[in-house]
Amino acid sequence: MGLLGKALGFGLAGAGAALFHMEMANASADAMHQTNVQWPHSGMFDTYDASALRRGFQVYRQVCSACHQIEKLAFRQLVDVTHTEEEMKAMAKEYTTIDEEPDAEGNPVERPCKLTDELPGPYKNEKEARASNNGAYPPPFRLIRNARTSCLDGKAGEDYIFQLLTGYCEPPAGVTIAEGQYYNPYFSGGAIGMGPPLYNEIITYEDGTPATMSQLSADVSQFLTWASLTNNDERKLMALKAYPLFLACGFAAWIGKRYIFAGIKTQKSSWGKLRK
Q1: Which residues pair with 205 in a beta bridge?
Q2: Residue 76: how many other CB atoms lie within 10 Å
Q3: What mean pLDDT comes out for the span 70-98?
Q4: Was domain 46-73+119-234 assigned CATH 1.10.10.10?
Q5: Which of 146, 166, 180, 187 could join 192 in a cystine, given CB atoms 3.0 to 4.6 angstroms apart?
């Protein structure tokens, strides 16, 4: 068997093993497999929906931020994404933080936040977070979308977040949920410590969009996707600019092969021993 045949055989074997592993994972999983949702940013050249990001940030501020933190995300990163610079400056002043420089006596100084500051979290540390949530630790949101994405079985993090938020229901017959927990078939094991965070009209959108539970879930899912992939639009724009360059380079390579090396391809070289 030639080298090409061996490579093809290994490739088919690897693909078969991956498919088998995928089927086994789906068959033996302890959570319901979510369906794929067509998001505004899902396409190769699609970008985030700015209105959805603004609404999703509003959902995070008014609902999710009571328990969860988006660490390492500064107010300035939201400028021209969800709000204007002036709006974000005014919003940052609603929060306080400890200044890096103490006062003359060495005491910490509390001041209003600026654009360069990170969005503060609801708790000082993990122990305080667990103590406030019956021992459960609310996961941070900065990379939550990436953490819930699995390339092996085609799961996208935003699909998981959306269907988790809308998937709360009564446990089926024979399933017992401990006190203080809730049933959600999309969560591993089914029992989740977080109660249903969203319901219809829990907030009032600034732009007048009806705040249904599915709308709230979709908006905050898109915002959390942006928080994990802040450079998604820029990456797609760079790719769009690069494709014509790739085509031009490919055409130039074809011209070079067709004309410059046409004579070299037809040459024949041979070697013989020198006679004495």
Answers
A1: none
A2: 16
A3: 95
A4: no
A5: 187
